[in-house]
């Protein structure tokens, strides 16, 4: 549904995007995750036809955004970072104005307005001026205008920014419901947002795609953690020589015991899944009579992945993941 190829964009000497490419299939809900200034809004403005790239192409449903801007915009529901709401208008008047601007025929407006209003839970606030609404309800109005024409593709720029925890939960639930009928791409700098909503994440840093994978792939690892009762000089070397082991790090466990993080080798290209190193490590510990305290597979959260990428700068696609040694 979205095909982005080799997008680059600079603002003067600020290189906001560098050779960005990704595809999003119909029905996916994808998080575009990145720190402030990573280039998320720039990508979203280009995808929605509000900004021209310096290089690269964007196809939405096979249509080039630059050549068919209006047609593409008619197929997209777009929630900008700050939705251009008209504070003096009532919710109803604003949504009616948006329906007119979208050139929805009068005969269809009533049903579509009603559907968008109920989907976003605005039915009890229709006559209130937008200026009198809380930030969460203003965001709902923004979402209501985005879904008014029943788009198959929703692009939401930081949909929960500035909301309180209750409002965040409400907006997330709403996005989840909308995703039943539409493909959704949303940007965020909040890791938990991606974990709560998406199957797939595209991580953007300094204008480049650093990772593009399903969450389960990113979080998968064969790394293991071994904790011993006391430090053994030979342990690190013996662990290092196990097949499938790429590196071994030594650290102190939370309760002060020597802990070894054993990094597994990357799976060969074209093979899926990860080896479990624990049986081989257990066998080594048993044979050498090591004072074993704990042995477990390491857990990688999205936060771990994000921090690794921020410090390493390596690119990750389709489950190939550089591991720190
Ligand atoms: P945030 O999470 O803070 O909204 P972002 O990931 O959406 O950030 P962008 O807004 O796309 O990032 O900005 C990417 C880079 O381009 C930043 O360095 C930003 O300062 C710069 N930038 C964005 N818009 C402009 C502009 N109109 N003029 C000059 N520089 C800009």
How is this structure best described in words?
With 325 residues, this protein is of the alpha/beta class. It has two domains: 217 residues, Rossmann fold, CATH 3.40.50; 78 residues, VP9 protein domain (Alpha-Beta Plaits). Helices cover 33% and strands 28% of the residues. A seven-stranded mixed beta sheet has the order 6-7-8-3-9-10-15, with helices on both faces. The protein has a four-stranded antiparallel beta sheet with strand order 2-1-4-5, covered by helices on one side. A four-stranded antiparallel beta sheet has the order 12-13-11-14. Strand 4 and strand 5 form a beta hairpin. The C terminus is likely disordered. Bound molecules: adenosine-5'-triphosphate (ATP).
Observed structural traits:
binds adenosine-5'-triphosphate, 2 domains, 15 strands, Rossmann fold, 28% strand, 7-stranded mixed beta sheet, alpha/beta
Question: Would you kindly provide a brief summary of this structure?
Answer:
This protein is of the alpha/beta class and 325 residues long.
Strand content range: 25-35%
Summarize the biggest pleated sheet.
Answer: 7 strands, mixed
* Secondary structural class: alpha/beta
- Tally of domains: 2
Order of helices and strands: EEEHEEHEHHHEHEHEEHEHEEHEHE
Overall geometry: elongated
What ligands does this structure carry? adenosine-5'-triphosphate
User: What integer is the average pLDDT?
Assistant: 88
CATH superfamily grouping of the largest domain: P-loop containing nucleotide triphosphate hydrolases
- Number of DSSP strand runs: 15
The rounded Rg comes to 24 Å
Under CATH, the topology of the largest domain is which?
A: Rossmann fold
Distance between the termini: 38 Å
> Going across the major beta sheet, what is the strand order?
6-7-8-3-9-10-15
What percentage of residues falls in helices of 4 or more residues? Answer: 25-40%
Parts with pLDDT < 50 across at least 5 consecutive residues: 314-325
| CATH architecture group name of the largest domain | 3-Layer(aba) Sandwich
CATH class category of the largest domain: Alpha Beta
Question: How many helix segments?
Answer: 11
């Amino acid at each position: 549904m979205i095909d982005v190829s080799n997008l680059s964009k600079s603002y003067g000497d600020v290189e906001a995007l560098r050779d960005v490419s990704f595809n999003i299939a119909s029905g996916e809900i994808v998080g575009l995750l990145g720190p402030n200034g990573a280039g998320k809004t720039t990508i979203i403005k280009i995808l929605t036809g509000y900004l021209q790239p310096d290089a690269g192409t964007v196809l939405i449903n096979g249509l080039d955004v630059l050549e068919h801007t209006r047609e593409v915009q008619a197929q997209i529901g777009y929630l900008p970072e700050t939705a251009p709401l008209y504070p003096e208008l009532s919710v109803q008047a604003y949504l009616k104005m948006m329906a007119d601007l979208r050139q929805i025929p009068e005969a269809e407006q009533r049903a579509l307005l009603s559907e968008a209003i109920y989907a976003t839970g605005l039915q009890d606030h229709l006559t209130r001026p937008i200026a009198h609404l809380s930030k969460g309800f203003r965001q709902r109005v923004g979402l209501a205008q985005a879904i008014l024409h029943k788009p198959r593709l929703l692009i939401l720029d930081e949909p929960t920014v500035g909301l309180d925890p209750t409002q965040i939960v409400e907006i997330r639930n709403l996005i989840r419901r909308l995703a039943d009928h539409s493909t959704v791409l949303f940007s965020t700098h909040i890791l938990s947002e991606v974990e709560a909503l998406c199957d797939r994440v595209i991580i953007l840093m300094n204008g480049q795609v650093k990772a593009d994978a399903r969450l389960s792939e990113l979080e998968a690892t064969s790394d293991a953690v071994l904790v011993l009762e006391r430090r053994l000089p030979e342990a690190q070397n013996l662990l290092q020589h196990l097949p499938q082991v790429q590196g071994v790090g030594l650290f102190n466990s939370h309760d002060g015991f020597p802990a070894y993080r054993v990094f597994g080798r990357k799976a060969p290209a074209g093979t899926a899944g990860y080896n479990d190193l624990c049986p081989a490590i257990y066998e080594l510990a048993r044979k050498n009579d090591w004072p074993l305290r704990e042995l477990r597979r390491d857990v990688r959260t999205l936060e771990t992945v994000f921090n690794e990428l921020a410090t390493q700068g390596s690119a990750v696609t389709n489950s190939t993941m550089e591991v720190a040694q």
